[in-house]
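To fix ideas at the outset, we first show an illustrative case, written as a sequence plus integers encoding its fold:
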Amino acid sequence: MPFKGWRRGRSSSEASSLRDPGRHFTIVTTASLPWMTGTSVNPLLRAAYLEFSRRGEVGVTLLVPWLAPCDQKLVHPNATFETPEEQKAYIRSWLAGRGDFQPAFD
């Protein structure tokens, strides 16, 4: 049974249920670690929690920006990465150090 949406007269469909297994979520952010801002940390923690709490039921992708190394020095000069894979490893390591789980999202 659909519930009433936030717009008058409109209701959600079964296809819009966020609780259904098999859903895939992509979380997009405009900042990423090592830049320690709410815009980088909050989406990361939300993606990690969603993946951890629904492990095996849903897919989660966290889409973060990639800056060229010369631009990284302007934003976060204490940590720069030559490749997106290095940045990904840094993010996973940072997250693993703050929780008792290993992130499995993309």
